[in-house]
Amino acid sequence: MIYLLAVKLYALTSQVINGEMQFYARAKHFYQEVPATEEGMMGDYIELSNIDIESSREFLRKFVGVSHLIPSSARDSSDVS
To answer: What molecular function does GO assign, one term (predicted)?
Structure first.
């Protein structure tokens, strides 16, 4: 199965225009047009494979450590908030 995802890409810039850094101004503008739903935030791509989830966990461990991440065995548990 092949998924195509359309994403608006902008060059990262710290340029200030009208008192706003353009990186943040563009992000604010982009998300004003996106519905406040899981589908909107994920670009209509809300089903993730386990490999995507585990790869994201590995990436995040570098920044937040292991104790802040929900273990794989607990993610389907009803007692995890």
So the answer is: protein methyltransferase activity
